Amino acid sequence: MYRIVASIISLQQHLDSLANNPIIYRPRVCPHCSFGQLWCHGCYERKADRTGSASDSLNPIPIPRYLCQGCHQTCSRLPECIPPRRWYNWTLQQIVILMLLTESSLRRCSKQCCLDRHTVRRWWSELNEHHQAFALSLRMRFPELGRSVDFTEFWQNCLHMMPLSAAMAWLDREGVIVP
Question: Dmax of the chain from CA atoms?
Protein backbone atom coordinates (compact mmCIF):
# COMPACT_ATOMS: atom_id res chain seq x y z
CA MET A 1 0.00 0.00 0.00
CA TYR A 2 1.21 3.46 -0.76
CA ARG A 3 1.64 5.59 2.34
CA ILE A 4 2.01 8.79 0.32
CA VAL A 5 -0.66 10.31 -1.93
CA ALA A 6 1.39 11.80 -4.75
CA SER A 7 0.80 15.19 -6.39
CA ILE A 8 -0.56 16.89 -3.26
CA ILE A 9 2.34 19.27 -2.83
CA SER A 10 0.95 21.88 -0.46
CA LEU A 11 -0.97 21.86 2.79
CA GLN A 12 -3.72 24.04 1.28
CA GLN A 13 -4.09 21.59 -1.60
CA HIS A 14 -4.35 18.77 0.97
CA LEU A 15 -7.10 20.59 2.87
CA ASP A 16 -8.97 21.26 -0.39
CA SER A 17 -8.63 17.59 -1.40
CA LEU A 18 -10.01 16.46 1.94
CA ALA A 19 -12.99 18.77 1.52
CA ASN A 20 -13.73 18.02 -2.16
CA ASN A 21 -12.37 14.54 -2.93
CA PRO A 22 -11.45 12.62 0.24
CA ILE A 23 -11.76 9.24 -1.53
CA ILE A 24 -8.24 9.65 -2.98
CA TYR A 25 -6.86 9.01 0.51
CA ARG A 26 -8.70 5.71 1.04
CA PRO A 27 -6.42 2.71 0.46
CA ARG A 28 -7.79 0.01 -1.84
CA VAL A 29 -6.83 -2.77 0.57
CA CYS A 30 -5.69 -3.02 4.16
CA PRO A 31 -1.88 -2.81 4.42
CA HIS A 32 -1.96 -5.30 7.30
CA CYS A 33 -4.17 -8.15 5.98
CA SER A 34 -4.94 -7.13 2.34
CA PHE A 35 -8.70 -7.22 3.00
CA GLY A 36 -10.51 -4.82 0.72
CA GLN A 37 -13.09 -3.22 3.00
CA LEU A 38 -11.89 -0.10 4.82
CA TRP A 39 -14.17 2.27 6.69
CA CYS A 40 -13.54 5.91 7.46
CA HIS A 41 -12.35 6.07 11.05
CA GLY A 42 -12.01 9.77 11.77
CA CYS A 43 -8.69 11.53 11.55
CA TYR A 44 -5.66 12.43 13.55
CA GLU A 45 -3.90 15.75 13.50
CA ARG A 46 -0.37 16.76 12.58
CA LYS A 47 1.33 20.08 13.14
CA ALA A 48 2.82 20.20 9.67
CA ASP A 49 2.68 23.94 8.97
CA ARG A 50 5.92 25.42 10.31
CA THR A 51 6.17 28.33 7.92
CA GLY A 52 4.70 31.28 9.77
CA SER A 53 3.40 32.48 13.07
CA ALA A 54 0.87 30.51 15.08
CA SER A 55 -1.95 32.85 14.03
CA ASP A 56 -1.21 32.38 10.30
CA SER A 57 -0.69 28.63 10.60
CA LEU A 58 -2.93 26.02 8.99
CA ASN A 59 -2.33 23.75 11.99
CA PRO A 60 -3.67 21.34 12.99
CA ILE A 61 -3.67 19.46 9.69
CA PRO A 62 -6.17 16.56 9.62
CA ILE A 63 -4.97 13.19 8.33
CA PRO A 64 -7.81 10.75 7.53
CA ARG A 65 -7.74 7.30 9.14
CA TYR A 66 -9.34 4.08 7.97
CA LEU A 67 -10.37 0.94 9.86
CA CYS A 68 -10.17 -2.52 8.31
CA GLN A 69 -13.28 -4.66 8.73
CA GLY A 70 -11.17 -7.82 8.64
CA CYS A 71 -8.33 -7.28 11.12
CA HIS A 72 -9.61 -4.13 12.88
CA GLN A 73 -6.27 -2.33 12.34
CA THR A 74 -6.19 1.32 11.34
CA CYS A 75 -4.16 2.91 8.58
CA SER A 76 -3.76 6.31 6.98
CA ARG A 77 -2.14 7.97 3.97
CA LEU A 78 -0.28 11.26 3.91
CA PRO A 79 -0.12 13.89 1.18
CA GLU A 80 3.20 14.23 -0.62
CA CYS A 81 3.93 17.47 1.23
CA ILE A 82 4.08 15.80 4.68
CA PRO A 83 6.93 13.36 5.38
CA PRO A 84 5.78 10.13 7.05
CA ARG A 85 8.29 9.97 9.89
CA ARG A 86 9.73 13.45 10.07
CA TRP A 87 8.96 16.64 11.92
CA TYR A 88 10.20 18.99 9.19
CA ASN A 89 8.88 19.23 5.63
CA TRP A 90 10.56 17.85 2.52
CA THR A 91 11.60 21.28 1.27
CA LEU A 92 13.77 22.00 4.30
CA GLN A 93 15.23 18.51 4.13
CA GLN A 94 16.08 19.02 0.46
CA ILE A 95 17.85 22.30 1.25
CA VAL A 96 19.90 20.55 3.94
CA ILE A 97 20.81 17.66 1.62
CA LEU A 98 21.83 20.01 -1.20
CA MET A 99 24.01 22.02 1.18
CA LEU A 100 25.72 18.87 2.42
CA LEU A 101 26.19 17.62 -1.14
CA THR A 102 28.07 20.82 -1.92
CA GLU A 103 30.41 20.06 0.99
CA SER A 104 29.00 22.43 3.59
CA SER A 105 29.79 21.32 7.12
CA LEU A 106 27.12 19.98 9.46
CA ARG A 107 27.64 22.96 11.74
CA ARG A 108 27.28 25.53 8.96
CA CYS A 109 24.24 23.78 7.56
CA SER A 110 22.55 23.59 10.97
CA LYS A 111 23.21 27.29 11.63
CA GLN A 112 21.94 28.46 8.24
CA CYS A 113 18.80 26.31 8.43
CA CYS A 114 18.19 26.90 12.17
CA LEU A 115 18.27 23.18 12.92
CA ASP A 116 20.02 21.17 15.57
CA ARG A 117 23.31 19.69 14.34
CA HIS A 118 22.15 16.23 15.44
CA THR A 119 19.05 16.51 13.24
CA VAL A 120 21.18 17.41 10.22
CA ARG A 121 23.58 14.56 10.98
CA ARG A 122 20.69 12.09 11.36
CA TRP A 123 19.15 13.08 8.01
CA TRP A 124 22.52 12.78 6.29
CA SER A 125 23.28 9.43 7.92
CA GLU A 126 19.88 8.01 6.99
CA LEU A 127 20.27 9.12 3.37
CA ASN A 128 23.69 7.47 3.24
CA GLU A 129 22.38 4.33 4.94
CA HIS A 130 19.44 3.90 2.53
CA HIS A 131 21.20 5.17 -0.58
CA GLN A 132 21.60 1.78 -2.26
CA ALA A 133 17.91 0.88 -1.98
CA PHE A 134 16.78 4.38 -2.94
CA ALA A 135 19.17 4.60 -5.89
CA LEU A 136 18.21 1.17 -7.23
CA SER A 137 14.48 1.95 -7.22
CA LEU A 138 14.91 5.45 -8.63
CA ARG A 139 17.28 4.26 -11.37
CA MET A 140 14.73 1.63 -12.43
CA ARG A 141 12.09 4.34 -12.86
CA PHE A 142 14.38 7.11 -14.12
CA PRO A 143 17.14 5.51 -16.24
CA GLU A 144 18.96 8.83 -16.73
CA LEU A 145 19.96 8.62 -13.06
CA GLY A 146 21.94 5.49 -13.95
CA ARG A 147 24.61 7.72 -15.46
CA SER A 148 25.52 9.02 -12.02
CA VAL A 149 28.72 7.39 -10.80
CA ASP A 150 28.68 8.17 -7.08
CA PHE A 151 26.46 9.16 -4.18
CA THR A 152 26.96 12.92 -4.55
CA GLU A 153 26.38 13.01 -8.29
CA PHE A 154 23.34 10.74 -8.01
CA TRP A 155 21.55 12.92 -5.44
CA GLN A 156 22.50 16.17 -7.16
CA ASN A 157 21.05 14.84 -10.44
CA CYS A 158 17.99 13.40 -8.71
CA LEU A 159 17.20 16.62 -6.85
CA HIS A 160 17.79 18.62 -10.01
CA MET A 161 15.27 16.38 -11.82
CA MET A 162 12.54 16.39 -9.16
CA PRO A 163 11.91 17.63 -5.63
CA LEU A 164 12.76 15.35 -2.72
CA SER A 165 9.06 14.90 -1.98
CA ALA A 166 8.43 13.49 -5.47
CA ALA A 167 11.42 11.15 -5.21
CA MET A 168 10.16 9.86 -1.87
CA ALA A 169 6.64 9.41 -3.28
CA TRP A 170 8.12 7.30 -6.11
CA LEU A 171 10.06 5.23 -3.59
CA ASP A 172 6.92 4.75 -1.52
CA ARG A 173 5.07 3.47 -4.60
CA GLU A 174 7.87 0.95 -5.12
CA GLY A 175 7.43 -0.34 -1.59
CA VAL A 176 10.62 1.19 -0.23
CA ILE A 177 10.23 2.55 3.29
CA VAL A 178 10.94 6.27 3.23
CA PRO A 179 12.13 8.26 6.22
Answer: 51
Peptide bond into 27 cis (omega under 30): no
**Whole-prediction pTM:** 0.84
Summarize pLDDT for 56-113 with one digit per residue, the tens. 778 888 999 999 998 999 999 899 989 888 888 899 999 999 999 999 999 999 999 9
Please list, in sequence order, all residues whose beta carbon lies within 8 angstroms of the beta carbon of residue 31, skipping any fewer than 6 positions away: 1, 75
Q: CB-based contacts of 41: which residues, under 8 Å, 6+ apart?
A: 65, 66, 67, 74
Boundaries of every domain in the chain: 4-79, 90-173
- Please name which of 76, 31, 18 lies closest in space to residue 8, comparing C-alpha atoms: 18
Q: Residue 31, SS3?
A: coil
Residue 157 CA to its chain's centroid (Å)? 19
119 CB-contact burial (10 Å; exposed 0-12 / middle 13-18 / buried 19+): middle
The DSSP annotation for 79-147 comes to ETTS-TT-SS-HHHHHHHHHHHHTT--HHHHHHHHT--HHHHHHHHHHHHHHHHHHHHHHHHH-GGGGG
